Amino acid sequence: MEIVRNISLKPYNTFGIDVTAEFFLEVTNEQMLPAITGDSSLPLQRCVLGGGSNILLTKPVTGLLLHNRLRGVEVIREDENHVWVKVCSGEVWHDFVMFAISKGWSGIENLALIPGTVGASPMQNIGAYGVEVKDTIESVSFWHWEENRFITYSNTDCDFGYRDSIFKHELKDKVFITAVVYRLNKTPNFNTSYGAISQELEKMGVTDITIRAIADAVIAIRSSKLPDPKEIGNSGSFFKNPTISNALFDALKEQYPDIPSYPVSDSMVKVPAGWLIEQCGWKGKREGDAGVHAKQALVLVNYGAATGAEIWNLSGEVLTSVKNKFGIDLEREVQIW
Fold first, then answer.
1. Which of 25, 108, 295, 306 has the most CB atoms around it within 10 Å of its CB?
2. Is 2 a catalytic residue?
3. Is 237 one of the annotated active-site residues of the chain?
4. Among 47, 68, 89, which residue terminates a domain?
């Protein structure tokens, strides 16, 4: 195993934050994990880095940083209606989405162009445009550091919630996700209920809806709203869309008639965090090299030399202003290191 010491993580995170990792190791096969556990010369403090697209590095990383490079896609089962695909956790998520589309497998086309790796998909329960990945996940396999063994959890074991799972709570920093099994549909079940997709398909002149057309529409929407990390540092959506009571929403609607919402249950609605932030005057605002994106207020950006602490402080100011104006507590979606 080739351990690198005091390596800069700037190329390994989409915010482009320049901090160092004390010990850095690329994990290229599952059997490295038992070896790491059994090597007493390695630090016991471990953390896992995938695509670096959902993290904000606020300080140097101490201990052993494991860079997930596990690769492989395998069909393990299929029937008349579905195909079960085992995907190694280091695969690039968008590459897998496009692979599934090329095979005619439906279920994740609405999740095209989401940055990151396959291993992050169950951890974050990634979602977009009316779809959550939990609805396609059959199981998640991982190495448990304390129990010193490989374990597989079923979908229900993962305790999925909105941008949430057991891997962000009880199992946080205790496991290394190695593979995810997805159950995809052989017969497309199109989800165009999210208004922006229907509008984009119409704009594209699409009359015959296909999973590729939906993915193309999603890619076009995301590309128009979200900055490319290769051009400006960011981690996509920085905040979760809050869910509030009907009573609070009705009170806000009287004061802000244009406030958008999406029903969650009989008593709760979801409000777009980007709209709330924009109403507080943050869209396009900049403090040094840390800023709020000019096209999408949900996205915080690094214009070049911002530190993680500066972006963190900016996010705190955003949270405070939304709370003061609307009485709503926003949550950060990005993982803070």
1. 108
2. no
3. yes
4. 68
222 labelled catalytic: no
Catalytic residue, chosen from 109, 132, 138, 333, is 333
C-alpha span between 29 and 58 (Å, rounded): 29
26 forms beta bridges with 67
- Spatial separation of the C-alpha atoms in residues 107 and 115, rounded to whole Å: 17
pLDDT of residue 162: 87
Number of H helices, E strands in the chain: 8, 20
> Which residues are paired to 75 by β-bridges?
85
- Residue 243's domain is classified under what CATH number? 3.90.78.10
Q: Which domain-ending residue is among 20, 38, 68?
A: 68
Q: Is the pLDDT of residue 195 over 70?
A: no
Task: Spot the catalytic one: 46, 163, 183, 222.
Answer: 163
Q: What is the mean pLDDT of residues 214-224?
A: 93
Q: What's the domain range around 178?
A: 73-185
Residue 84 falls within a domain, yes or no?
yes
What CATH number did the domain enclosing 117 receive?
3.30.465.10
pLDDT band at residue 47 using 50, 70 and 90 as cut-offs? very high
pLDDT digit string, tens, across residues 65-83 = 999 999 999 999 999 999 9
Active-site position among 89, 237, 261, 315: 237
Q: Are residues 42 and 115 in the same domain?
A: no
